[in-house]
Amino acid sequence: MTKILIDDIIPIIVIMALGYVCGKLSYFDNDQRQGLNKLVLNIALPAALFISIVKATREMLAQDAVLTILGFIGIIVMFMLSYYLCRLMFHHSIQEAAVCALIAGSPTIGFLGFAALDPIYGDTVSTNLVIAIISIVVNAVTIPIGMYLINLGQSKDRERLSKAAVTNSKGQVSIANPKDDIAVDPNKDAKTDKTAEVMISKSSNMGKKKNQNLEALINALKQPVCWAPLLAIVLVLIGVRVPSGFAPTFDLIAKANSGVAVLAAGLALSTVKFSLGWETIWNTFYRLILTPAAFLGVGLLLGMGSNVNKLSMLVMAVALPPAFSGIIISSRYNIYVKEGASTTAVSTVAFAVTCLLWIWLVPLCCH
After folding, report:
1. For the whole prediction, is pTM greater than 0.85?
2. How far is 286 from 293, CA to CA, in rounded Å?
3. Can you tell me the distance from the alpha carbon of 12 to that of 55, in angstroms, rounded to the nearest whole number?
4. Distance CA 127, CA 310 (A)
5. Which of 112, 127, 193, 367 is 20 to 30 A from 156, alpha carbon to alpha carbon?
6. Cα separation of 47 and 71, whole Å?
7. Of 342, 354, 345, 334, whose CA–CA distance to 280 is shortest?
8. How far is CA 215 from the centre of its chain?
9. Are 345 and 16 contacting, i.e. CB atoms less than 8 angstroms apart?
10. Distance between CA atoms of 149 and 80, rounded to whole angstroms?
11. pLDDT block averages, 10 residues each, the chain of length 367
């Protein structure tokens, strides 16, 4: 456990703190911060996701049906539950709740998976299987779902803006619904004001829009962070093996992912006032306590208690701190930044304690 703290947790905290200090000292301006986020989100992270997933095989997924099914269904259910609870409890928008789910509902399996599980359980086939299954679901399923929801929320916002702009008989712009809070000057003439002209044009073409769900799905699939892991899972399912000679090419750029992502998380935290409110506490509890507890309970009901080691590995895999891809997406789109960065920071520190809790608790529950 000491090795995990020294080799894995402390470096994350130090690099995140470095990013925070750099942000406070204005070492990076806003364009440079966005450039780092773009590097991770569009290049390094897709490469890391692709190469980690294609290392799995169909045989690995079929090796333990209960583990595979529980991993797939469990991660998706907890992801969507985080999304709906965020909307219900804290009244966030679709895209804010989606980013919350990407953070509170997704473990950082790609970054800490092997680092946390190997020292405890050893580098075994079972360890690789658990990490591969959780990694595939988090990276190839929940990230595309999250990106789809973000695009859907943005599409609905654009529609709301379009509906808010109407033209009266004098060619002036007015607000259709005062609750929409759209900053449009009603005294401006639509014939001379370009902003009004564009908004009115959008409003008049509402009937010609594509279906919002389809448009959001297409926009999500255009992102490398979505299609790269999906392509990898397709290759795994059809049995196509990527030649090992290609791995170093992907690994070289993928290595930039974790370090830059953690640094960017610190930069994001420096741009907002750190919050240790109820929402941050809830997200941390959901990520580190509620999610692994749910997996432990369902695993025991499905008879996994007879293999304590495998159940413990599964619980530990889903008890990891938030996925750093979530905070990168948050910072890149400027959505849920304050809550997301605070949750990531608090959860990463708290994991040093909850990790010990689950190592002790799982065997106790199995006896």
Report:
1. no
2. 10
3. 25
4. 8
5. 193
6. 23
7. 342
8. 21
9. yes
10. 11
11. 64 82 86 81 78 77 84 95 97 96 90 73 74 83 92 87 62 47 42 40 46 77 82 85 74 72 76 81 97 96 90 93 84 88 87 88 89
Closest CA to 288 of 321, 323, 327: 321
Which pLDDT belongs to residue 166?
Answer: 53
Pair 45, 324: CB distance under 8 Å: no
What are 192's two structure tokens?
Answer: 């001379």
Sole residue written with tokens 């990407």 = 102
Whole-angstrom Cα distance, residue 142 to residue 299? Answer: 21
The pair of structure tokens assigned to 23 is 């942000």
For position 71, what pLDDT does the model report? Answer: 92
Q: Which amino acid, one-letter code, is at 198?
A: V
In sequence order, which residues have a C-beta less than 8 Å from that of residue 225 and are 6 or more positions away?
41, 42, 45, 46, 49, 143, 147, 325, 329
Q: Hey, what amino acid is at 12?
A: I
As a residue count, the chain comes to 367
